[in-house]
Amino acid sequence: MLSTVSRQLRSHPALIPLFFFIGGGCTMSLTYLARLALRNPDVCWDRKNNPEPWNKLGPTDQYKFYAVSIDYSKLKKDRPDF
Q1: Which positions, given as ranges, span the membrane (predicted)?
Q2: Could you state, in order of their start, the residue ranges of all structural domains in the chain?
Q3: How far is residue 67 from each of residues 28, 61, 64, 72, measured CA to CA in Å?
């Protein structure tokens, strides 16, 4: 299969950007899925030691990937401790 791809790329060099961008898109999507699985407070991998990880988040913790208009460092605590 690798020889077929290399033969096609030699005969059609216009396919090189296509392979580059599709490979980059796949890499970025897999990286984002790994970030969601490891850093999202809604995901719990260890149920014995930390059954509710969302309760340990402070009001200044930013867990979103991109915050448009919220400055998390200035937020006050508005919920009770459990």
Answers
A1: 15-38
A2: 1-39, 45-82
A3: 19, 12, 6, 9
Q: What is the DSSP string of 22-39?
A: HHHHHHHHHHHHHHHHHH
The two three-digit tokens of residue 68, written as one number: 């448009």
Distance in angstroms (rounded) separating the CA atoms of residues 41 and 66: 15
Residues 6+ apart with CB under 8 A from 50: 44, 56
Residues contacting residue 22 through CB under 8 Å, at least 6 positions apart: none
**What's the confidence (pLDDT) of residue 59?**
67
Tell me the Ramachandran region of residue 7: left when phi exceeds 0, alpha when psi lies from -120 to 50, beta otherwise.
alpha
According to the model, what pLDDT value does residue 82 have?
A: 63
